Amino acid sequence: MEHRGPQVAHPARVLIFPLAAQGHVNSMLKLAELLALAGIHVTFLNTNHIHDRLLRYTDVRARFAKYPGFLFRTIPDGLEEDHPRAGGRVTDVIFSMNEKTKPVLREMLVSGQLGSVESPLVTYIISDGIFGGFTIDVAEELGVPIIQFRTGSASVFWSFLFFPDLIESGELPIRGKEDMDRLIKSVPGMESFLRCRDLPGFCRVSDTSDPLLQLIAQVTQQSRRAQALILNTFDDLEGPVVSSIQSKCCPKIYTIGPLHALLNAKLTKNTNGSEDPSSNSLFDVDQSCITWLNSQAPKSVIYVSFGSITVMTKHDLMEFWHGLVNSKKGFLWVIRPDLVEGEGGAGSVQAELAEATRERGYMVGWAPQEEVLAHPAVGGFLTHSGWNSTLESIVAGVPMICWPYFADQNINSRFVSEVWKIGLDMKDVCDRKVVEKMVSDLMVERREEIEKSTAEMARLAKKSVNEGGSSYCNLECLIEDIRLTRK
Ligand code: UDX
Known about the structure:
- GO terms for molecular function: 7-deoxyloganetic acid glucosyltransferase activity; quercetin 3-O-glucosyltransferase activity; quercetin 7-O-glucosyltransferase activity.
- The chain is an alpha/beta fold.
- It has helices at residues 22-37, 48-57, 60-65, 90-100, 102-110, 133-142, 154-161, 163-168, 211-222, 235-248, 259-271, 288-294, 314-327, 347-357, 369-373, 387-396, 409-419, 432-445, 447-465, 470-484; strands spanning 13-17, 41-47, 71-75, 124-128, 146-150, 228-231, 253-255, 301-305, 330-334, 361-364, 378-383, 400-402, 423-425.
- It folds into two domains: 13-155 and 204-276 and 466-485, 3-Layer(aba) Sandwich (Rossmann fold), CATH 3.40.50.2000; 287-444, Glycogen Phosphorylase B (Rossmann fold).
- Uridine-5'-diphosphate-xylopyranose binds next to α1, α15 and α16.
- Residues 21-24, 26, 151-152, 281, 305, 307-309, 334, 366-367, 369-370, 386-389, 392, 407-409 line the site of uridine-5'-diphosphate-xylopyranose (UDX).
């Protein structure tokens, strides 16, 4: 039936669609909240599985109810109900969503399930960059503008863009352990420091037709088709590489990071400081560690956390434990229930370790990480170098020891140690003597030198999110562009 009468201009509605993993949901929900604060109607599309967890462990439903037009919607991830999605199995979720989600997403958009009465149409899509082409196909078919949000750093995106060149030039595959320190020549700007060792674990394959390597190479190329990219970084940290990406393939990039700091700055301004930083945790946060930190001397504690995906052997866990205890420093250690692979998991040793360490260490299953890093007692962070953790450490001015596990983390740790000089890299080694030495170097021996660069980077990060800063202004541009494309 033909519609008559005056056309009503509906408010803009943005669909935000992250991969079902902690680091992705966390940063994209922060972006959702920033847009909602600006009055934009947002639909946040989570997989059923992740959304159940989010509702179990956070108050997001109440928190977001105050934003007009904010909707949570869910979509299946395509895996069997009893599939173990946690820990290292996140790659199954990536493959499954890339294979199976496209028709469901299309149907949800066409049928109007993603809108509300006041703003029935999705006028803009911001999808996770790891989804590659399928969200772009749907957006193009339906005529909806689409931006991709790459949850990793600009430098990681830049190097992933060159995977086809690495394969073609024969720089990949990596030929065994003795080949690890060979410099990579096909990533412009990184020829002097990027080694085979610093490439993601999925590059350590004997055959370049490896499905994960191929998938990542392919989805990265697909990002060129989006109208724009959003990067959770800031210009003073990665400005030159952002410019390189713009000239090579993606002219429009909004660098709006560190997103958690930008959101905290906005919330503080809007509520005169009465609002706490928002938690988007998919785990049960144990606040008792803050009470423990309150009793520790300034900068005396090393915070240890390997993020939401890392898994390790019991042997590695014990090496870390001995190294930490022998360092004679206080430590706060996040041991997720699924951190240790194999029989009994972390549960089988955690109680024993906690008892043996009571004097100097404290262990929790999941910590309020932003709050921990901002605590005066914390003087270092032993991390898996996930991008969110790296940014959170930068903002808090806490130097890092990096033990990367997966995907982008190997590159992040190289940048932390070699380029930004805000930490030390112990990738590929898990030995109690090395752990002890690293902790002692970071907290004592080399403290002054590393602290200087960490403090300066923290200053620049904060500048970028405050009024007039680069990320602050870029967010304003993004909001303006979203409003201008309202149907
Ligand atoms: C992964 C990749 O490692 C990351 O680089 C990519 O960009 C997103 O997906 P993850 O391994 O979960 O993420 O690490 P990270 O990016 O560091 O995100 C973890 C988040 O969980 C951080 O925001 C951190 O604050 C939070 N966290 C972690 C807690 O709140 N409590 C904890 O105890 C541990």
